[in-house]
Specification:
With 838 residues, the protein is an alpha+beta fold.
């Protein structure tokens, strides 16, 4: 705009005070002249006198008068070119499409930032002036021409006319000035044809899109449109622009770097020389969008805040409330907006509101407690934080209401807790005291007052005049204030009698900060006397315990030996049973052979010996010898096996052995225990599994586990099954799994089965030492571990993990035995040579 030109702006609003910031921004510009009328009737009258350059129209006029007035302006040809900008006072994000549909050119929204307001107003003023300049471009030009020429094209005569071009020159200057203003405008300007190709772009447009002017003039609008269906959108846009003449809308554009940003476009359609054109004023609204998003987010946070929030007018009426306010009071939002503060506060009446409002204005922010009444008439306590705010020339009370029902209950509970605590402290039969951070006593109970008098409010130095006692107190207090808990015993003379006390002093912490110390003095004189008496009895009791322990160990040793003898008894029974068959057969064959020999001798003596008699005797003798040899060999093998098992079980000899062969030999010896039952043993052990260990303790463990199954596990079971599996775990260990399908072990006693003398069948063949000895042999001599798992009715499983090479014995030449399992020093041990001597 030229500096001498003045833009006349007509503001139509009944409440100009609400638009104080907008009017002050426009009034500060020298070349703007702002007039205000209260309604559309006065505006129509003003238009009859003088047409303004721009109209600002309050969108909140009663009965939607703003939209009706704008539509009537568009129907009038003289007023059609005057841009109309709607003013949104409340910035409620209303639907602006209706305003654009009736011919509005733009919207201005609260809080009316000055840079944006000036940019938008100047843009539309420049647009109107440019449109008028284009319409005035039909200027008079001089017309001269050559009317005739010779054969060579040289002119023969010329007809000329002189024309005054002053008006044209002025128009050209105006156009040049306009072109310069548009080129350097703060808003982006672009001209385009119906096919979307740019005809002109100003410098701001180039900066906004990141292209040079030459690049943009070779491009189409669709190439910078960030939407997917850009071409279809442009065709629809052109049809709508041509029909309405002007459009203001928002879109997105793509920068040359690929960045997509929002813009606001004010597009105008005009025709020149029979061809349609679009001139668009484009504004980057990224910052505005961010501001709007922040405002929307702020409003969303307020509307959904956990506290009830009220916007209150000076007359005490609500103009807005959030969701929590509605939920807390039980009203719908529309109901609350028709109410006043005293409608929900029973402690306030309408006459008290003016001084209340004035007090809030003076303090700006104040906090107080009151009651609120719900829709169902129930009351609840609230804490109000009232804030006096002024906006756009009007005052408001922005109040937060927090339901403090829970806090009131907590405070009541805290007071009751303090009473209970004080009562509990008073009932403690010992001295109790508290010292504050300043070193003074702040609390003591009745028992403390009996001994020391009333010390509350005093320092320790005021309580005692004994220097040594005071020094000791101060030392303990400093340690407690440093975070240490002191517990000590001390003896002092009280009323001529020496009494003993336990002193406990501890810091009182509040979130890592020490606020004071608490002390407790307990008179332990009687306890000390009882301890001394108890010590005398204890010394005598220790002698009795030593004697009883020695006797108990002797009894345990005898029981262990009895258990071993019982195992040997089972072994002897097995030997007798297994040897009975081959030896009986040998005896029978020997008797039969004797009878045949007697018959043969009689035949020889009688002289009746024949060749057939000799052949028969030799055949029978040969058969008898074979039977004798077979049965005696079987007896010898059994004796060898039994001898090996007996040597292993009665000695601690370490040797390499095959695990499967050793257990098979043991099962042969234990076979008689299964003769009168249908119980069976299943063996699943690889043949090449060798150990360098102690076969005797291992056989003892297996024997005890089998005995445990027969005595306890198969009670009430006719045909039980025992499984013994073994497999390597790693390069140095094996897992030996013993299981049965017996009655199982109840969970309450599962953890006690390895205790000595623990048995559930005392007097029925159980000594309570079988599993105890097995556990100690596995974890001691064999160097392994044993675990048990069982469920009632589902049998029992013992998992033994044993090293393939047993650990070295704790005493040279002797493996370590579990308690109660060692041989007595005077018992002779069978040597390795004796054990292998058949």
């Amino acid at each position: 705009m030229p500096e001498h030109a003045t833009a006349n702006i007509l503001l139509v609003t009944p409440t100009p005070a609400r638009l104080g910031r907008l009017t002050s921004t426009l009034s500060e510009v020298d070349d703007f002249c702002v007039r205000n009328v209260a309604d559309v009737a006065l505006a129509s009258a003003a238009l009859a006198v003088h047409w303004p350059d721009l109209i600002l129209l309050d969108a909140d006029l009663p009965e939607r008068a703003a939209y009706t007035f704008c539509r009537s302006l568009q129907a009038s040809s003289p007023a059609r070119d005057v841009p109309v900008i709607f003013v949104d006072v409340w910035n409620e994000g209303c639907d602006r499409s209706e305003g654009f549909a009736v011919g509005g050119a733009d919207y201005l929204s609260s809080p009316f930032p000055a840079p944006e307001v000036l940019a938008r107003v100047r843009t539309h003023l420049e647009l109107a002036r440019l449109r008028n300049s284009v319409h005035c471009a039909q200027l008079t030009s001089d017309r001269g021409g050559i009317t005739a020429g010779d054969d060579f094209g040289e002119p023969l005569r010329m007809l000329g006319a002189q024309v005054d071009i002053t008006v044209r020159k002025r128009a050209e200057e105006a156009l040049q000035l306009t072109q310069f203003a548009v080129d350097h405008a703060s808003v982006a300007v672009a001209w385009a044809k119906a096919d979307g190709r740019y005809l002109y772009v100003n410098q701001q447009m180039c900066r906004m899109l990141g292209y040079s002017r030459a690049q943009l003039l070779e491009m189409h609008v669709m190439e910078v449109n960030a939407e997917a269906a850009a071409e279809e959108m442009w065709r629809e846009h052109w049809r709508e622009l041509k029909a309405k003449g002007s459009l203001t809308y928002e879109a997105r554009r793509r920068h040359s770097s690929g960045r997509i940003f929002p813009i606001e476009i004010s597009a105008n359609y005009f025709e020149y020389a029979g061809e349609g054109y679009s001139i668009a004023f484009v504004r980057d609204i990224s910052e505005r969008k961010q501001t709007e998003k922040a405002l929307q987010l702020t409003r969303l946070c307020i509307m959904r805040a956990s506290d009830a929030i009220f916007w209150i007018r000076p007359d005490g009426r609500f103009i807005d409330v959030n969701v929590q306010a509605c939920a807390a009071l039980g009203y719908a939002r529309d109901e609350l907006l028709g109410m006043a503060v005293w409608d929900i506060d029973p402690n306030l009446v309408a006459a008290q509101w003016p001084p209340h409002w004035q007090r809030t204005r003076e303090l700006k922010t104040r906090r107080f407690e009151t009651l609120h009444r719900r829709k169902d008439s129930s009351l609840f306590p609230v804490e109000i934080t009232a804030n006096s705010v002024e906006y756009d020339g009007e005052e408001y009370d922005f109040a937060f209401a927090r339901d403090i029902s829970e806090r009131r209950r907590a405070e009541t509970a805290l007071r009751e807790s303090e009473v209970r605590l004080r009562t509990a402290i008073e009932s403690i039969p010992f001295d109790v005291f508290l010292i504050g951070a300043d070193g003074r006593y702040v609390l003591q109970n009745t028992e403390s007052r009996k001994h020391w008098g009333d010390v509350v409010g005093k320092y320790p130095a005021e309580v005692t005049d004994d220097g040594e006692t005071l020094m000791h107190w101060d030392s303990n207090n400093r340690r407690a204030f440093a975070g240490e808990i002191i517990e000590e015993e001390a003896c002092i003379a009280v009323a001529g009698e020496e009494r003993c006390f336990t002193n406990i002093i501890a810091p009182i912490k509040d979130d890592h900060e020490i606020r004071g110390i608490v002390g407790l003095n307990i008179d332990i004189t009687e306890r000390k006397r009882a301890e001394q008496e108890l010590q005398r009895h204890r010394e005598h009791l220790e002698e009795l315990v030593s004697e009883r322990t020695a006797a108990l160990r002797q009894a345990m040793h005898q029981l262990v030996q009895a258990e071993k003898l019982a195992a040997l008894g089972h072994l002897v029974a097995g030997v007798a049973h297994e040897l009975n068959t081959p030896l009986g057969n040998a005896r029978l064959v020997a008797g039969t052979l004797g009878e045949h020999l007697h018959e043969f001798a009689s035949t020889v003596e009688s002289g009746t010996l024949r060749r057939s008699h000799l052949a028969t005797f030799l055949a029978r003798a040969r058969e008898a010898v074979e039977l004798l040899a077979r049965n005696t060999a079987r007896a010898a093998d059994l004796v060898g096996q039994f001898k090996q098992v007996a040597v292993d079980q009665t000695s601690m000899r370490r040797r390499p052995f095959d695990l499967r062969q050793t257990i098979e030999e043991l099962l042969v010896a234990l076979r008689p225990q299964f003769k009168r039952s249908a119980h069976r043993i299943e063996l699943d052990i690889p043949t090449a599994l060798h150990l360098d260990s102690y076969p005797g303790p291992l056989e003892q463990v297996i024997s005890n586990l089998i005995g445990n199954s027969l005595i306890h596990g198969f009670v009430g079971i006719d045909a039980g099954c025992i499984g013994i599996d073994a497999a390597p775990v790693d390069a140095g260990h094996i897992r030996l799994c013993y299981r049965d399908n017996g009655t199982g072990i109840p969970e309450p006693i599962l953890n006690r089965i390895f205790e000595p003398f623990f048995t559930t069948r005392l007097g029925c063949g159980g000594s309570g030492l079988g599993l105890y000895i097995a556990y100690n042999l596995v974890t001691g001599v064999l160097g392994g571990t044993v675990a048990v798992r069982s469920q009632p009715g589902q049998g029992t499983v013992f998992d033994l993990v044993l090293p393939m090479v047993a650990p070295s014995p704790t005493v040279p030449g002797q493996a370590s035995l579990p308690p109660g399992s060692r041989q007595r020093p005077h018992e002779p041990r069978q040597s390795s040579d004796d054990a292998t001597n058949h």
